[in-house]
Structure formats: C-alpha cells, structure tokens
C-alpha cells in the first residue's frame, strides 16, 4: 500500500511570466527577474511630454549612449524593493545601535573643542552634497530607460537622503539638538573658501542633462573620490588624532559605499563594453569630470586627511576604472 | 559651540533633516536647476510654507517598510506553498486580477516614474522628499503586485504578458493614456492629477474595491498586499491634500488653473473607474457592494465634505459631477455589456450573470437594471445556451480623450448613445461626453496625439490584417486560452478538476 497524495491537478501550467520566459526560458524566475525586467512601458505612448516635446515619455535617447538592450545592465545585488529595504533596515539597525551608544556616552560632546569644530567644518557640510546626489538620482530614475536601471537609481536616491540625515544627526549630536552646528556647517558650505569648488561642482552637476553622464559624474567619479577621501582617509586621520569614536557614526557610509559601488561598476562596465563609441564617450566624460572633482576635493584634503591621501585615493580610483575596462586599451 | 539655544521640537528637527539640507544656489541659476517649475503658470511665492504631510526619516522608512515586506512575502510564500489559488471563491474571480495586473500594476510603475521626476524638479526640498517617498512606494506596489500575481500566473491564463499587453491592447489604453496624460503634464498638474484627484479623491473607488473584492473572495495573496499597502496609501492621501492646499494658498492666480485641472482629472478618473464598476458588479463571484453604493459612500459623501472644505479657496465641485449621479446607475452594465461582446480581444474572460446575480443587480439598481439591461443579458444568455455565444466583430469608435468605446448613454436618456464631436484643424474628433470634449478643446494639440488602438489597427500599425491576428500576434493573447467566454475555458475546466467536477466542454466560439 502506498499513500497517494493527489497533487497533479495543481501542476502549474507555466513557470513564469512571458516577459521573463522570453529572456530566461520557461523555468521559475527569481523575484528580482519577475519584478525588474521589461516592466516599464516601451511603445505606443499617447502624448509627448510638455516639458520635453522632442522626446517620448519613456525614451532611451535621454542619454547619447546607445545599447541594443538596456536591460543588459542588471544589479549584482539583485535588489528589488523588498530586498532593498530589508538590506537597509539591517544596516540602519546597526547604525541606530551605534548612534544610541554615542549619544548615551556623550562621545561627541566629550571630544576636544578643536575636533568638534573640525567635524562641523569638514564632515557635516557634506549633508548638502548628499541632497544634490539625492536629487540627481531621483531625476535619473525618471529619465533613464529599463527598470533594472531606474530602480537602482531610486534606491540610490533614497540612500543619499538617508546619509544626509545621518550626517545631520551627527551635527545635532554636536550641538545638543539645537541646530547651531547644522547652521554653522551650512555657512561653511555656502561661504567657506575650501567648500566653494565642491559646491560649484555640485551645482553644475544639477544642470547636466544626459542622465548617464550625470550618473557617471555623481555616482562613479565624485563619490568614487569623495567617499574614500572623506569617509575613509579622514576617518583614519580622526582616529590617529584620538577621535576614533566618530568612525562609528560614519560606518554606515563606508558599508554603503562598498555595497553600492557594485551596481555602479556593473552598470558602467556593461555599458562601456557595449561598443567602442560608448567606451570613448564614457572615458571622455570621466576625463572631464575627474579633473574637476580632484580640484574640488583638494582644499578639503588640505584641511583634513592631507594631499597624500588625495593622491592615494586617485590611484585607487584609477585601478577601479581599469577593472571596469576603461583607459586600458 | 556650547550654547544655550533651545532644543529643537519634532517639527523643526524634521525640517533640519529634510528641507534645511537645501541651499540657495549661486553658481547656477535656480531656473536652470528647476526648469519645469514655471511653464504651467502656477505661482509659488514661498516653498517654505509647505507643510510636511508626514514626518518620516529614511531610517524609519527602511525599518517600517522592511517589516511590512517581510510579513507580506511570508504570506505570499505560504500562499504558493499551500496552493492558495484553489481556495478562492470561484475561478471567475481571477479575471478581476487579470484586469488589475494588466490595467493597474503598470500604472503603479508610471506613478513611480512621475513622482521620481517631480521629486527632482520641485523647487522645495520638503515637497521633493515627500514625492520621492511616494515614488519608491509606487515601485513597491508594482513589484509586490507582480509577486502576488506570480503564483496565479502559474495556474491561470491571461496574466502572463501584462506589460506587453498594457502597451498594446485596446482597452488598456484607457488606464495607460490616463497616466501618460498626467506624466506628460508639468509637475503641478501631475500632482493635481495623481496625488489629489486620484489618490485623495478617488483611491477608495479603485484600490479599496479590488482589495475588498479579494477579501470577499478568499484571495489571501492580494488581500495581504492590500493591507500592506494601506499605510503607504494613507501617506499618499495626505500628500495629495497638502499639495492642493499649498498651491491654492500660494497665489490666487493659481485657483482657476487648479479648478480646470480638478474638472479634467475628475472626469478622466470617473471614466477610468467604469472598469472598476464593472469589476465590482459583474466579475466578483462574492460581491462586496454595488458600484453605485461605492460611488455614493466614497465619492458623494466623502467627496462632498472635501469640496465643502475647499470652498473657502474658491474651488467648486468638479464640472459634470451631477451627470455622475445618474451615470452610476448605468456605467457598470454598459461596460460589462461591451466587454462581453469583445471578449475575443481581451486577456480575460467574460460571462453572463446567473439568474441569482441578475436578481442582485436588479435589487441594487432598482431603477435601471430590469428596465434597460436585464432583457438584453437574458437574451445573450439564451443565445449562448443555444451555442450562439455573441461576439461583436465590428471595431468600436473610441473617445479621443478617455479612449473608451462610445458605449455610454446620453444624460437624461438611457436609450440613446452619447456622442459628441469637434472639428479641429479640419479634422473631426469624436468623444463620449461633454466632459471629454471639454478636455480636448482645452488642449487640442495634446489630445490629437492620442494613440487610439482602433485607428492604429485600421492603419495597419498593429501587425495583422484582421482582428484575430492582431489579438494573437500583436497583443500576445493566446487564442482560445486567454480570451473568449469563461464557461468551458481552460481556466474553468481546470477549476472544475480541482473541485472534483466534470469539466464543461468548451463552448463553440460562434460569432
Ligand atoms: Fe500605488
Ligand atoms: Fe498610492
Ligand atoms: Zn471620453
């Protein structure tokens, strides 16, 4: 005798949606695949945008780069909304723990005045740069083509808002939640000579129209140099000067940078590998913006981690670009 | 830096965490950074008057949303594991899901795109941040809907190619053109259309009927999605109200512009919702409430109070609202009658209501159903029983604005089809109503562009020479599987097998 459990009538009639079947075959697709590929409308748009009548609502020509299929770009982290928020929730749990610890033990208020001043002058003003990164990534997610790319940019946009808010909390910890440190940091951003090249660069980025150029400028070049310099090297400087506790409050940024660089790299690598034209254009953009970024970071390096740190960061960045297949053929 | 300034309250702290991140640019002009802000004629004198509709920092957002996602996916997994699709009220119900996945989910994506754009282009950082949160929420909605439907797709037809169909299938141009319309407008009209008219005024007539329908029909997957999205929707609604009040308070010149948008978007929304009306009255095996009842509760009562409240700004209720009082007794029947006739070209099945269901309809629509619709539906059912299921093979005339076929009747005369037309630059355009014609006349250069599915078929832009090949090859609707009558369809047969019944032979698909 055998136990016969009748299940055959519940056999699936297909394994996945047609859009994923066409790409990956008739087998169960991952949640990332089902929610990311070919979701966005492609044809038969009804009206031209009033704000840009020469383009269709969704239009792959909002960048001058060309891909046979923009869905060739995918996120190595395989983030769709659910996995994205769960990954960030875990990170914020750690951050929350560290921030609470610092608050409880008054770790920042116990720092020497000069160190505290330094944080206000060199770290907290970055919250404004993060806001621009937030805006740009939100705009890119509206401009670009293919859900695998749009979604990565909106996650990135929200991440930048989160980071701006963590930086603001550092300021609030420094000023006892009165806002004075944030006001002082904003004056730095607006008026201090050492911040003006960066602020100028950031404002210039806000009028860049080609979304890929903007993503490249913001997410690869600017972040690729600024994060290692001001969240890594500057943290080492602070540690060496006895203010290592601050590192707990910027750990989120370092973890985030390491993680999110993966999709930025994947995107740039895939698009550059598509054609010699793409690669040449990408290299030209990098060439152009890298100079400006280095120029903008130099006075900040001077005040913080030092020019050698900036040189080291530039070398690491060159290695990163080479891994992406750039500037080496 | 020690100081004796007061500790910040919650409201000011939130300002520091959002809009205070912004600064007055000096290296680039504001007009160049925010180039979309002026062309609609809306005057904003002070973005700082923006009241944050909710105070949510990103860390809290990640935390709450992650908890909701975790719970939702646990249920979706259990649903698939336990073959939850067999526990629904009846397989006919799944046709409501087909309408939802092809008609609504791609619009969630459009909402994401639209809010991401406004989230970049508004000059006020407080408003931008609120819009960005809605952008990512809307991405959540489309993705969780796809995941909730993923298991249904493995066991039912018609769901399998939803985005491909959304871009092509004739009736899906109704929701698609609605969102295309909003998204192609400027940022302020987009928010009036989607945040205010859609989310605030009409969401209870769209989202709630589908989710309650799921609850009444044993669909755990969709109902769990619905509950999970509820707190997102609450945020979206508060944003919608804040947006409208903010614009109205900024400048009196804004009032007539916004009134025009409210008129337009109310009418477009009302037309779009006839699809929901037919879903409620005809597609749900277990009915929640009638469309007319939903309209009374969620629009006439709730909306009435809202427009009273807006009176002080000089806003009146939307134009043609009185026509809807009468139309609510008709539109669901007229829509279902149309879809019944054109089932050969849809990705879902239709059927005639049973005698018992007709009794329910006549109780809910005491002044219209028996008088105008019952005889026709009974006749069709009898024809079908004789093996002569009716399909209409002539392509209908579509309204240039809402893109619904000319199926609605004249206000005041339910026996006469409503039809309007207008000549623009030597060409005659056709409309379903005064409301749609007004919309056209206000912006003819926009609406002449509409991609009308029927015209496109005639012009040969949809592949094949005949409807059958368009449906099969251009729409990717699998003939005899995704489309036609429900009775005897593969979905129906499989359902009968699950329920231990003998499957009904497929109907002869006569026309
Ligand atoms: Fe939504
Ligand atoms: Fe919503
Ligand atoms: Zn119309």
Q: How does this structure look, described?
A:
The complex is a heterodimer of chains A (329) and B (511). Chain A has helices at 18-24, 31-36, 81-104, 113-122, 126-143, 147-174, 180-191, 196-205, 211-240, 246-274, 276-303, 307-323. Chain A is an all-alpha fold. Chain A has one domain (77-323): Ribonucleotide Reductase, subunit A. In chain A, α6 crosses α7, α8 runs antiparallel to α11 (276-303) and α10 packs antiparallel against α11. The model of chain A has no long low-confidence stretch (mean pLDDT 96). Chain B is mainly α. Chain B has one domain (47-498): Ribonucleotide Reductase, subunit A (Orthogonal Bundle). Chain B has 23 helices and four strands. A two-stranded antiparallel sheet of chain B has the order 1-2. Chain B has a two-stranded antiparallel sheet with strand order 3-4. In chain B, a hairpin with a 2-residue loop joins β1 (409-410) and β2 (413-417). Chain B is globular. At the A-B interface, α1, α2, α3, α4 and α5 of A face α1, α3, α5, α6 and α7 of B. The structure holds fe (ii) ion (2 copies) and zinc ion.
